[in-house]
């Protein structure tokens, strides 16, 4: 097996990252949810002020996983980071690649003065144990927080009254 390397994503990785995002969406049983294409990833991640950062895991030259993250702000602690996704292709799971990707995000957070790293996990996803073993706290259980979202149609209705 080729050496596994973690590096910052490059613009030319966006097509593969988009394919991996679809694989993750399929795994999460929501294949129709992905609406971005690789051009949006290129624009949002590599043009002007990036809206996200991404690290990729490679085996040789092949991208086999990714971690996508971005800055958020907490009125309680200040600068923070949100981990949107970690995904490793099925053939490379169980080889500590997810751990390496998570550590790369944690390092980026600490190097950029972030005070916390937030993320969400589906309630059935066994990845919860992966995060808990590394010290993550389930806020729904501990602090009773629930994550809510306005989808586009409801967001448009809400904005129309502004």
Distance between the termini: 57 Å
Q: How much is the radius of gyration in Å?
A: 17 Å
Total strands: 5
* Average pLDDT score: 95
- What's the CATH first level? Alpha Beta
Task: Supply the helix-strand structural class.
Answer: alpha+beta
What is the number of domains? 1
Shape: globular
The residue fraction in helices comes out at 25-40%
Strand line-up across the major sheet: 1-2-3-4-5
| Run of helices and strands | EHHEEEHEHHH
Strand content: 15-25%
The CATH superfamily appears as Gcn5-related N-acetyltransferase (GNAT)
CATH architecture: 3-Layer(aba) Sandwich
CATH fold-level assignment: Aminopeptidase
Family: Belongs to the acetyltransferase family.
InterPro entries: Acyl_CoA_acyltransferase, Diverse_Substrate_AcTransf, GNAT_dom
Pfam family, one: Acetyltransf_1
GO molecular function, one term: N-acetyltransferase activity
Task: Give an account of the 3D structure.
The protein is 36% helix and 23% strand. The chain has a five-stranded mixed β-sheet, sandwiched between helices. Helix 1 (14-27) crosses helix 2. It is built from six helices and five strands; from the N terminus they run βααβββαβααα. The radius of gyration is 17 Å and the shape is globular. It has one domain (4-136): Gcn5-related N-acetyltransferase (GNAT) (Aminopeptidase, 3-Layer(aba) Sandwich), CATH 3.40.630. It is an alpha+beta fold and 162 residues long. Residues 4-157 form the N-acetyltransferase domain. This is Diamine acetyltransferase 2. Pfam families: Acetyltransf_1. Keywords: Acyltransferase, Transferase. It comes from Harpegnathos saltator.
């Amino acid at each position: 097996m080729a050496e596994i390397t973690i590096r910052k994503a490059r613009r030319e990785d966006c097509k593969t990252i988009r394919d991996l995002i679809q694989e993750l969406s399929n795994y999460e049983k929501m294949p129709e949810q992905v609406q971005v294409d690789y051009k949006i990833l290129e624009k949002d991640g590599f043009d002007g002020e990036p809206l996200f950062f991404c690290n990729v895991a490679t085996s040789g030259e092949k991208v086999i996983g990714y971690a996508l993250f971005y800055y958020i702000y907490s009125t309680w602690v200040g600068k923070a980071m949100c981990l949107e996704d970690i995904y490793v292709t099925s053939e490379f799971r169980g080889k500590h690649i997810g751990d390496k990707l998570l550590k790369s995000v944690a390092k980026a957070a600490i190097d950029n003065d972030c005070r916390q790293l937030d993320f969400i996990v589906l309630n059935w996803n066994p990845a919860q144990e992966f995060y808990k073993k590394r010290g993550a706290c389930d806020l729904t259980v501990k602090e009773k927080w629930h994550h809510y979202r306005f989808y586009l149609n409801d967001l448009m209705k809400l904005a129309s009254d502004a």
